[in-house]
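Q&A log
Question type: sequence-to-structure
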Amino acid sequence: MKLNLEYQIPENWDQDQVERVVTQITDVVNLLAEGRMSGTYLTASTIPTVGAYALGDFVRNSNPSEQNSVAAGVAAKYVNIGWICTSPTTPSTSATFKECRVLTGN
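Response status: OK
Response body:
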């Protein structure tokens, strides 16, 4: 949920309704501050190839699924949760990303 910066309280506002909205916003901000909730704006279904990225930027995989290991003789399955930028974009080069995998235990 993004906060709407255009929102203004009408002249005939209902104090109870405003208090409920402020309480909901406070709850979400507190969850974010405690690390129990996060927001993601960078998502993609494949490794990023265009755009400006800084070192450490994380692009979440918008279509994760369990995969078989690509290592010969290894029977571990994993999920690609996204990609992390290991070399930022410069005027003459694209950013470099590494896949972030989580083992599923299967």
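Response note: The chain has two domains: 12-39, 43-103.
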